[in-house]
Amino acid sequence: AVRRPHGTADTVPHVDGARLLRRIDRFSRIGGAEDGGVTRMGFSEADREARARLVSEARAAGLETSVDAGGNVFISRSTVRPKSPARPRILIGSHLDTVANGGRLDGAYGVLAGLEVLQCLAESGTVTGCDVVVVAFANEEGALFPQPFWGSMVLAGRLDALPSEPRDHAGRPLREALALAGGDLSDLASAVWAPDSVVGYLELHVEQGPVLERLGLPIGVVDSITGRTQLTVEVTGVAGHAGTSPMEGRRDPLVAAAEAVLSVERLAREDRLCRVATVGWLEVTANSPNTIPGCVRFSVDIRDSDSAGLAAAEQALRATLADLAERREVRIAIEVAVRTDRVRTDPRLRQEIAAAAADLGLACEAMPSGAGHDAQVVADIAPVGMIFVPSVDGVSHVPAERTAPEHLTAGAEVLLRTVLRL
Ligand code: GLV
Ligand code: MN
Ligand code: MN
Ligand code: MN
C-alpha cells in the first residue's frame, strides 16, 4: 500500500506550476541570447547575477539564504548550519551555471523547482519531518574554471582532489572570482558537510537524452550516474611563420592535436574501451591564419559505467599521447580536471520517488544517467536520488534544449511529494 504523505490527500500542498515556469523564464534571460541559448559559466558575471537573483527571490518569499566558502548558495526556512544540524535535513537542488551557449534548463530547473517546493511548503505552513535545504551548487559544468562539480566537491569534502590555486583558461585566479561570489578559497574546510549531516540529496533534472520521450513517460527515476574522466591536454610545439618555415622540421602542436582528437574518438568508437569519448573544447595559440601555432589546449571527456573501462581508456590515451609527443617532437602535458566513478542512487530514495509519482498518477521508469550531476559527488556523504523529466528531441547543452511545461510542473510535484514522504 502507498503510504500517504503527512495529512490526507486533499491537504497535501501543490507546487505553483505557473510561478515555476515564470521563474525559469526570468532566469533564462540572465546570460541569455537571441536564439534561446544561455551562457552563464560558473563564476562569470552572468552567473553572479543569477545567484544574486536567486537570493533576492528567495528572500522576497520570506526564506533565509546563505553562501558557503565554496560559493554554494543555500535557501531554507531557518538558518543552515553545515556541521551539526539540530534536526535531520534533506538537501534538494542542482546548479545555476551553464556550459557555453547551453540551454535554459540544465541545472537551473532543479534549483528553481527546489525553491518552488520550499516556497510552497513555507506558504502552506507544512510541517516536514526533516528540514528542507535548497542548494545551488557552484560551477557544476566547469566551463570557465575547468573544475566540474566544484561546489559539490567542496561540500562533500573532496578538497584534496581540487587544485590549491585554481585558474580559468586565461589564467585568472578562482580566488578572486570566488570572493566576488561570496566564497573564500582559504576557508573551504568550513563548507564541508559531515557524512551524517544530511538524510538525503534529491536532484531534479531534465534527462538531456531521448529515453523518456521515446517511452512516452513523464518521469524517470535515475538508478545510476555514469562515471567520467575529464582531462585538459596542453600540446606545446614551436611557433613560426606560415610562409617561411619549411614543412621539414616543423613541430606543429595543432597537427599533433588533430591526431590526438582522432585517437580520442577511437577509444570509444573502435576500441570500445569506454561508452563515449569527446573533445569539446580546443584553444589554439596564437590562432592566426599565417602563423604556425605554438600551443594548443583541448579537453578530453570520457564516460563509462565501468571504472575499469574508464581507467583503461585513460591509460590507452596516455600511451598514444606519449607516442605522439615523441613522433612529432612536441611537449604534451595532461591535467586531470575530474575523475568520478559510476554512482548508484539510493534504493530507498528511488522507491520514494516512484511512490510519489504513483501518488500523482504519473508513470515512471528506472534509467541510468549518461550526464554528470552533482548528485554523484554528494553520494560520497549521503544517499542520493534523482528525478528526470523528458527532454524534447533528447537534446541538451545546446540552445534548443526544451521540456514541455506540463512535464516541468510534474517533475516539481514529484520532488515535493518525495520530500513529504521522507
Ligand atoms: C553535465 O553537464 C555533463 O557534462 O554531463
Ligand atoms: Mn550540463
Ligand atoms: Mn546539469
Ligand atoms: Mn553537468
Automatic annotation (TrEMBL):
CDD domains linked: M20_bAS
Binding sites annotated in the UniProt record for Zn(2+) 2: 106, 141, 397
Residues that hold Zn(2+) 1 according to the record: 95, 106, 205
Cofactor binding annotation: Binds 2 Zn(2+) ions per subunit.
Cofactor: Zn(2+)
Pfam families noted in UniProt: M20_dimer, Peptidase_M20
Keyword field contains rRNA-binding: no
Key words, A-Z: Hydrolase, Metal-binding, Zinc
Gene Ontology MF terms in the entry: hydrolase activity, acting on carbon-nitrogen (but not peptide) bonds, in linear amidines; metal ion binding
Keyword Protein biosynthesis: no
Highest taxon of source: Bacteria
Peptidase M20 dimerisation domain: residues covered: 227-327
InterPro entries named in the record: Amidase_Cbmase, Bact_exopeptidase_dim_dom, Peptidase_M20, Peptidase_M20_dimer
PANTHER family, alphabetized: ALLANTOATE AMIDOHYDROLASE, ALLANTOATE DEIMINASE-RELATED
Family per similarity comment: Belongs to the peptidase M20 family.
Name assigned to this protein: Zn-dependent hydrolase
Organism of provenance: Streptomyces hainanensis
